[in-house]
Write a structure and sequence with these properties.
alpha/beta; 12 helices; globular; single chain
């Protein structure tokens, strides 16, 4: 598959150079002089929306600044991202988003309308949530090791997997699982997780990888069977479900799919502004009350890493999911 999107080492280094982290105490003189607009590229209720509003409320309370959250959904997040890439890099227009518009959409698009490396400045990574593989009650396996044997032995087309939509992390994570096992699992897109999980619970579809917030409640209720968390270690949010590293399947030991939520500004954002938000969000995400509140929605608060580390994680994720899209022959949109 040929993609119009290419991540080069030079581009990644250029993105990192734009966002070198200043000293923790540094901040723009008088920042912010006016209310800060935080754009969320999804409708209300999305994980990024929940985190953005919680962060805005806490930062306002702690630092006395005005933060306005604005939902700009559309085009799989592209409209909201572009509202930020086209803004002045003064720290008054920022983006809070999950990873899909940053590391999944560009390599999935034939003509991506933005380059996340060149047109955005990473500011802070402050939330993570995981994915879990669940199976229909009638699927002939109760562990990941058993599932791997079943899938490898079954004729092509025997088992299918639901996902909440084309180009979602759910679809890509299942494609990565199939590539790792050396088998092809038919992908069936739905309009959202709810309808997809209903069909898995009814046994009409065998498998699904989905986010904790939608899949775990159904697993806890016994409607679907949780086989593994798609990670190298168990999640503190779902401690009863084993990780892929515990499956005993060598090809799956390092396989991981995590959803993160981060803050970005337009390219050229002053490092001292990024440092201001890294410090502010770090204070929020270390608050035990905030940690507990997020855990109820299956989001793990992540005290922000340095801008350089966040930039490197973005580069790594772009390369990883671009490779999965290519190797699994997922059609570009």
């Amino acid at each position: 598959m040929t993609s119009s999107f290419r991540l080069t080492r030079r581009a990644a280094l250029a993105g990192a150079a734009l966002t070198t982290l200043a000293a923790p105490g540094a901040m723009a003189q008088g920042y912010p002089a006016r209310p800060v607009r935080v754009v969320v590229p999804f409708p209300p209720g999305n994980t990024s929306d929940i985190l953005a509003r919680l962060a805005a409320e806490e930062v306002q309370r702690r630092r006395g600044v005005t933060v306005v959250v604005e939902n700009r959904p559309g085009a799989s997040g592209a409209l909201g991202v572009q509202a930020v890439t086209s803004a002045r890099p003064d720290g008054l227009t920022l983006l809070v988003t999950t990873q899909s518009p940053i590391v999944v959409n560009p390599p999935l698009m034939k003509n991506p309308p933005y380059d996340p490396v060149r047109e955005l400045s990473p500011v802070a990574l402050f939330g993570r949530t995981g994915f879990v593989l669940v199976a229909a009650p009638n699927f002939p396996a109760n562990t990941m090791a058993e599932a791997a044997r079943v899938l490898r032995a079954a004729p092509r087309g025997t088992y299918s997997a639901a996902n909440p939509g084309v180009g979602t992390m759910s679809q890509l994570a299942m494609a990565l699982l199939g590539l790792s096992l050396g088998t092809e699992i038919e992908s069936i897109p739905y309009r959202g997780s709810a309808a997809a999980l209903v069909d898995v619970a009814a046994g009409r579809v065998a498998l699904m990888i989905d986010g904790f917030n939608s899949a775990v409640p159904m697993a806890l209720n016994g409607q679907v069977k949780p086989l593994a968390v798609i990670a190298r270690q168990r999640s503190p949010l779902v401690p009863s479900v084993p990780s892929l590293a515990e499956s005993g399947v060598p090809e799956l030991l390092d396989l991981e799919a995590l959803s993160w939520t981060g803050m970005f500004g337009p390219a050229g954002l002053p490092p001292e502004v990024a440092a201001w938000w890294t410090d502010a969000l770090g204070e929020v995400m270390r608050d035990p009350a905030v940690v507990a509140k997020l855990a109820q929605t299956f989001v793990e608060a992540a005290p922000p890493v340095s801008v350089a580390a966040f930039t490197q994680e973005i580069a790594s994720d772009l390369a990883k999911w671009s490779r999965v899209i290519r190797d699994a022959r997922i059609e570009q949109q």
